[in-house]
TrEMBL record, chain A:
InterPro entries: Cyt_c_oxase-like_su1_dom, Cyt_c_oxase-like_su1_sf, Cyt_C_Oxase_1, Cyt_c_Oxase_su1_BS, QoxB. Its main location: membrane. Coiled coil: none annotated. One of its GO terms (molecular function) is cytochrome-c oxidase activity. GO terms for cellular component: plasma membrane; respiratory chain complex. Pathway: Energy metabolism; oxidative phosphorylation. Keywords: Cell membrane, Copper, Electron transport, Heme, Hydrogen ion transport, Ion transport, Iron, Membrane, Metal-binding, Oxidoreductase, Respiratory chain, Translocase, Transmembrane, Transmembrane helix, Transport. The keyword NAD does not apply. Residues 34-552 form the Cytochrome oxidase subunit I profile domain. The chain crosses the membrane at residues 12-35, 56-76, 96-123, 135-156, 183-209, 221-247, 281-299, 311-330, 336-362, 374-400, 412-434, 446-469, 489-512, 586-619. Heme A3. Binds a copper B center. This is Quinol oxidase subunit 1.
Automatic annotation (TrEMBL), chain B:
This is Quinol oxidase subunit 3. SUPFAM superfamilies: Cytochrome c oxidase subunit III-like. PANTHER family: CYTOCHROME BO(3) UBIQUINOL OXIDASE SUBUNIT 3 (PTHR11403:SF2), CYTOCHROME C OXIDASE SUBUNIT III (PTHR11403). It is a multi-pass membrane protein. Pfam families: COX3. It comes from Gracilibacillus oryzae. Its main location: membrane. One of its GO terms (molecular function) is oxidoreductase activity. It catalyses: 2 a quinol + O2 = 2 a quinone + 2 H2O. It is found in: Cell membrane. One of its GO terms (biological process) is aerobic electron transport chain. Its EC number is 1.10.3.-.
Length: 648, 198
């Protein structure tokens, strides 16, 4: 392979990116060296097993990926803003909608949600960390390495270009030669292992580490939704593991899982992909529902309406989500009976979802609503998401779906579900839990700019897509003729995407501004919260709770505040056991990245040799008998005194 | 929660969580193998002119493999029994027997694969062979991983003795080993026996 096959060449946009990436890397290394921060980075971040720091790294990576996926989106909108534009050619457009989809779902939505879960869930259940802190770090590094491997594809070797669903036969070697789709198969596999480990970790954490007295029905709702999501991860991700393994074997070793000529079956890929892919949608949306529930209850100053029905609804949605996958390919030759069954199960999902919508509305009823930024996002979510839900029921009807299957109507629908459902939730969650992570609030005024620009831009971008979709514009079209009459709609939509991007820029500015100037004096409980994460200092100390709280009822902390019982006694302080930092997670992450890279390029000898690194990491981990360390009582007392005052 | 008669591997809270976590991991493994089985059933008759199962399977060899692996599950159980009686040497002996039986199984399976390749059934031949070799290969790779893993644990047991930590690690590895046996029973029934009847 010659050098100009290795690097992607011949496109000024990509050349610019290559130069920018190179300069940024050099700049970062120089800056860290100049500030003498390498040791600090290694000690405090790269080797950390603290769930809060891991959560923050997830969030940081998620925001970065949001930027990358967002730029992809803007490029697509620019290309379709006018008829017959030559800004991107068909090939480049294919690559961009593929990476946009993969990055937004797997490398933006997932890490942002898992990041917030990481920070919040242990605090909400009164635990000192997750069940397996080192595994948690490994999860992060596998995700991060997977994301980076996927991201370099557009400058090294070439991007995948068969869509985020990568249907066979298109995604096979015959129709998609080159290494692009190898990146898809390998990078997602690596990140997927990390996600599966996260799922297992949180299931055990929530089952075994809840504070004394916190029975299942006294658990905060966000913890419930994280629990159900974790179970869905364990149930669904192995299916994707197998599907990607088949894809890798077909592409790298010439097997025939999906090629018709030698007895393979491309429909097998579709079924496996959506058997994972549909639950995946709920994996990202359920924790988001939990965040809205927490925010709405807190800022309505009321307990969550219908808590139990919320729990049952979440469990019901999770169960049904495993039984609807065929609705993604009604038009691909199933019998009428099969289509009808999947149509019914799909429509049934609207029932528990409707229960949740009404519960949120009733939580607000007669509440003293405070229009903080977190609350604004929750309020905007309800109508926008309902539009997504209603159009979803339209798509669920198999007979009608034949009319708008794979049109822009579908694209508009899932953006109306995923952006309000997930992105708005992440924004609400970030504004809400930011002080718990960093000890200062994000600015509310800049936050309003962020909110209005993003929400208006979002509706401007995606509402027109419903109409061009109903008018017959199929998805993934890189251009169209003047005579279609779509130009005004798509032009308006492109303007909307710029407004939305301005909203995102406002968020970034807000983070910068608040980091520099916001007041550090926010106290432990800035929003008058209801759950245990507000019972400890902001930012939360590395041991979380000096004394593990006891819980008598749901929203226990809210009542304890009223009863004046939130203090701790000096005599209750005991040394706290903490896990030690570890180098194995980041080492294993990098090792997987190297092996993955060689596999992408089908350099098998190098891949086999470098997999020795993985073995070394695993063996070192097996022989590691580090028992962690204890924080002495004096140190605890000193840290607690800082924000509680003198302990009794 | 933890009393004197609680088995050693369950004494500490962390060990309890490790064991529960591993059970949940086995749940994920069940999903993984179920997917492999389902895919095999979809593709099993798509031989594309290549050999079908009944043309190449040698039931006698498969039966020997089955006995080797099933016996190794029994001896792994014996090792756990001696671990609980704090009989370190017996435990090590039975673990080594387990590993040898596992290695015997692997040897047979590799020979079986070589035989198939000579018969003209490689992983690239057809949809059937792709699904067959991937299902069997995934199981075989698990056995290989298990042999290496348990060997490493043997060093740790020899060096550190039977402690709360080593016993829980070993118990988890034994769960894994039994799980592979269960998967094999399904492979034996639904791949080989079903394949022989056609």
């Amino acid at each position: 392979m010659s050098l100009d096959e290795f690097f992607v060449t011949g496109d000024p946009l990509i050349l610019g990116s290559q130069i920018a990436i190179g300069l940024t890397m050099v700049g970062l290394v120089a800056l860290i060296t100049y500030l003498k921060r390498w040791k600090w980075l290694w000690r405090e971040w790269f080797t950390t097993v603290d769930h809060k720091k891991i959560g923050i790294m997830y969030i940081l990576a998620g925001v970065l990926m949001f930027f990358r996926g967002g730029v992809d989106g803007l490029l697509m909108k620019a290309q379709t803003s006018r008829p017959e534009l030559g800004f991107l050619d068909a090939q480049h457009y294919d690559e961009i909608f593929t990476t946009h989809g993969v990055i937004m779902i797997l490398f933006m939505a997932m890490p942002l949600l898992i990041g917030i879960m990481n920070v919040v869930v242990p605090l909400q259940i009164g635990a000192r960390d997750v069940a397996f802190p080192k595994l948690n770090a490994l999860s992060f590094w596998l995700f991060f390495v997977g994301a980076m491997l996927f991201n370099i594809s557009f400058v090294i070797g070439g991007s995948p270009d068969a869509g985020w669903t990568s249907y066979f036969p298109l995604a096979g070697k015959e129709f998609t030669p080159g290494v692009g789709n190898n990146y898809y198969a390998i990078a997602l596999q690596i990140a997927g292992i990390g996600t599966l480990a996260t799922g297992i970790n949180f299931v055990v954490t929530i089952i075994k580490m809840r504070a004394p007295g916190m029975s299942w029905m006294k658990m905060p709702i966000f913890t419930w939704t994280s629990f159900v999501t974790s179970i869905l991860i364990v149930a669904a991700f192995p299916i994707f593991t197998v599907a990607l393994a088949f894809m890798s074997l077909d592409r790298l070793f010439g097997t025939h899982f999906f090629t018709v000529a030698a007895g393979g079956d491309p429909m097998l890929w579709l079924n496996l992909f959506w058997l994972w892919g549909h639950p995946e949608v709920y994996i990202v949306v359920l924790p988001a529902f939990g965040m809205f529930s927490e925010v709405i209850a807190t800022f309505s100053r009321k307990n969550l309406f219908g808590y139990k029905s919320m729990v049952y609804a979440v469990a019901g949605i999770a169960f049904l989500s495993m039984l609807v996958w065929v609705h993604h390919f009604y038009t691909m030759g199933n019998s009428a009976a099969v289509n009808s069954i999947f149509s019914l199960t799909t429509i049934m999902i609207a029932i528990p979802t409707g229960v949740k919508i009404f519960n949120w509305l009733f939580t607000m009823r007669k509440g003293r609503i405070e229009f903080s930024n977190a609350m604004l996002w929750s309020l905007a979510f309800i109508p926008c998401f309902t539009i997504g839900g209603v159009t979803g029921v339209m798509l669920a009807m198999a007979a009608a779906d034949y009319q708008y299957h794979n049109t822009m109507f579908l694209v508009a629908h899932f953006h109306y579900v995923l952006i309000p459902g997930v992105v708005f939730a992440v924004f609400a969650g970030l504004y809400y839990w930011w002080p718990k992570m960093f000890g200062f609030k994000l600015n509310e005024k800049i936050g309003k700019w962020h909110f209005w620009l993003f929400v208006i831009g979002f509706n401007m971008t995606f509402m027109p897509m419903f109409f061009v979709g109903l008018d017959g514009m199929s998805r993934r079209m890189y251009t169209y003729s003047e005579s279609t009459g779509w130009a005004p709609w798509l032009g308006f939509s492109a303007v909307g995407s710029v407004v939305m991007a301005a909203g995102f820029a406002a968020l970034c500015y807000n983070i910068y501004w608040s980091f520099r100037y916001a007041s550090r004096d926010v106290g432990s409980d800035p929003w008058n919260g209801r759950t245990l994460e507000w019972a400890t200092a902001s930012p939360a100390p590395h041991y979380n709770f000096a004394v593990v709280p006891e819980v008598d009822r749901i929203d226990d902390f809210w009542y304890k505040k009223k009863e004046g019982k939130t203090g701790i006694k000096k005599s209750d302080l005991k040394p706290v056991h903490m896990p030690s930092n570890s180098w194995t997670p980041i080492f294993l992450g990098v090792a997987f990245g190297i092996v993955g890279f060689f596999l992408v390029f089908e350099w098998f000898t190098l891949a086999v040799i470098s997999s020795i690194l993985i073995v070394i990491g695993l063996v070192a981990n097996s022989f590691d008998y580090d028992d962690g360390y204890h924080i002495p009582v004096d140190e605890l007392e000193e840290e607690e005194r800082e924000w509680r005052g003198e302990l009794k | 929660m933890t009393q004197a008669n609680t088995p050693l591997e369950y004494r500490s809270h962390q060990s309890q969580m490790n064991i529960l976590g591993f059970w949940i991991f086995l749940g994920a493994e069940i999903v993984l193998f179920s997917t492999l089985f389902a895919s095999y059933f979809v593709l099993e008759h798509n031989t594309a002119g290549g050999p079908a199962g009944q043309d190449i399977f040698i039931l006698k060899d498969v039966l020997i493999e089955t006995f080797l692996l099933l016996t190794s599950s029994f001896t792994a159980g014996l090792a756990i029994h001696f671990m609980r009686n704090n009989a370190k040497n017996d435990m090590i002996v039975w673990t080594i027997v387990t590993l040898l039986l596992g290695a015997g199984f692997l040897y047979m399976e590799i020979n079986e694969f070589i035989h198939y390749v000579h018969e003209g059934a490689t992983i690239q031949t057809s949809g059937f062979t792709a699904a067959f070799f991937t299902l069997l290969g995934t199981h075989g790779a698990h056995v290989t991983f298990g042999i290496i893993w348990i060997s490493l644990l043997l060093f740790q047991i020899a060096k550190r003795g039977i402690t709360e930590k080593t016993s829980s690690k070993f118990f988890i590895a034994s769960l894994y080993w039994h799980f592979l046996d269960v998967v094999w029973i399904f492979i034996f029934t639904f791949v080989y026996l079903k394949g022989m009847v056609g």
